[in-house]
Predict the structure.
Amino acid sequence: MNGREEGFAPTGICSSGPERIHMTSKEMEGGPAGPLVGQFAESVEPGFPFELRLPQGAVPPLQDLPGRYFLGRCSSEVGIERDSGWSIYLRQPLFVCSRQEREDGDFWQLCQGPGHFVRRPGATDESLGQVGIDPAAHWLSQRSRGDPLNLLGPLGNGFSVPSEPHNLLVAADVADDPAWFWQLYFLCEQALDRGGRATILLRAADERELAALIPWLPVQVEVRTAADDFEWLEQLRQTAAWADQMRAGVPASRYSEMKRVIEESRFRTDRNFAQVLVNADLACGVGACLVCVVPTGRGGLTRACVHGPVFDLMDLVD
Ligand code: FES
């Protein structure tokens, strides 16, 4: 690490960073509120989002929720077990998919980020679906309706959603990890709610995976799929040309090609036209531990937990 960090305002406006890591004004104000205790509204199916009920009024109305996250204590609530169980000693990031305030509570749909799934959606064959056991995913999968979950948050900066009608393009590399879909899919519904149009581009090698994901989308959403890199880039080229906003969930290795395709198809790139959700280790959530730093396009580093995890793509690529 060269000690130089770049901070990004929530709007994605880039500012020159100071020489040393510093706390932002938001962090100085105390960072996240104290822990919240929610209740599972349903049991958790690994690899899928789950619904949690929070006490009404515990979280004020907020904008730009998709992309923001809670840090959940995904381990035993029982003191004696917590003393002896060290398999999960950090809180786990749980990303906000959606929020619905209803008469009987404040319901949040949350999901884990990439790299946690026990089973890929749509996989019926265990050897195909098994991609590693994550202790947090395992703990979540043991929860039942009504069980408590201790949370900090919501934290970070999410995807900005224009209030006026717009043409939205969502690009998710589900061949890399289906979590990208869950983290972004609700943006489509938000675009439709604002009178706009939504297209989602999914890179997926497996038809069964697509069949498990697509029914979660409103029928008005145009779905495009790509089975390989060639199709993915071609579809990106076609769709980026007419979109007003592009929101992407892809591994960092795809940022450069995505930027190149945007520049070729649009000739100019407006700020925040393309926002990406980075896959970073979100541990403390307040900018203190530095495990979440990600490189910026100008050769610096920035903390994804407080300046992201959603960034303007152009800030991350040279
Ligand atoms: S998660 Fe600790 S500094 Fe970002």
